[in-house]
Amino acid sequence: MQRRVLDATLRCIGEQGYIGVSLQDIADMAGVSRGAITHHYSSKIELTSSAIQHFVQWRYDRVHTAFEGKGGLPLQERLDILWKEFQEIFPVTFELIVALRSDKDLLALYKRNSKTRIEEITTGYDGFFPELSGMNVSGVMIAVMAAFYRGAYIEAVSRDAEYIEQMKVVFQDMLMTYLDSDKKAA
After folding, report:
1. What DSSP line would sit under 24-54, residue for residue?
2. DSSP reduced 3-state for 136
3. 148 CB contacts (<8 Å, ≥6 apart)?
4. Residue 133 in 3-state DSSP?
5. Which range has highest mean pLDDT (63-77, 134-148, 171-185)?
6. pTM of structure
7. C-alpha pair distances (Å), 48 with each of 15, 18, 93, 130, 174
8. What is the number of other CB atoms lying within 10 angstroms of the CB of residue 5?
9. CB 133 within 8 A of CB 186
10. End-to-end distance of the chain based on CA atoms, in angstroms?
11. More confident: 136 or 172
């Protein structure tokens, strides 16, 4: 039941935004009573913080599955897999970012509850991009890749697909150039 409630929380936030969603909306989506939710979560903030942690793990597991058996693909093809996954999961990610930005209590609770979790998951991406693992800044590079894809998704709202594709090509070329120069420096 808790997983159903967490999934419903994420769906509601993705569809209505954090501010617009109520515990009753979540209960209706999950097919449970509001009392069942408040029995486990004392507030919308506590529920949302737990749902965000659930989402971060689910997102990592989903990306991990997408990369399964594809470690030998060229970097550009693995970046395309990452882009495809970002397109499908970013709408909820975006709403969660807005929620964390707009509700300081939610942000504080989330930070307290997930201090090392984000680092663990980011480190897991090293397996998808082994060419980054030998670098001093591999975690930063993974964060840069994620930031690019988040930005590209937002740009896709007002730009045509061809423009977004050009952005991806330029980004991939810059990443390849950086990786080549890092190898030469080593």
Report:
1. HHHHHHHTS-HHHHHHH-SSHHHHHHHHHHH
2. coil
3. 171
4. helix
5. 63-77
6. 0.75
7. 14, 9, 13, 33, 37
8. 24
9. no
10. 52
11. 172
CA distance 183 to 186: 5
Q: What CA–CA distance (Å, rounded) separates 62 from 42?
A: 29
Please give the share of the chain, as a percent, with pLDDT higher than 70.
88
For residues 172 and 79, the answer to whether their CB atoms sit within 8 Å is yes
* HSE-CB for 52 with a 13 A CA cutoff: 27
Please report the pLDDT score of residue 138 as a whole number: 65
Side chain identity at residue 166, one-letter code: Q
Structure tokens belonging to residue 118: 């984000």
Burial 30-46 (b: 16+ CB within 10 A, else e): bebeeebbeeebeebbb
The C-alpha atoms of residue 136 and residue 116 are separated, in whole angstroms, by: 19
Is pLDDT of 73 > 70? yes
Q: How far apart are CA 103 and CA 96, in angstroms?
A: 10
122-127 contacts, C-beta under 8 A, 24 or more apart: 124/60, 124/64, 125/63, 127/67, 127/71
Per-residue tokens: 94: 């975006």
| DSSP-derived secondary structure for 89-115 | HHHHHHHHHHHHHH-HHHHHHHHHH-H
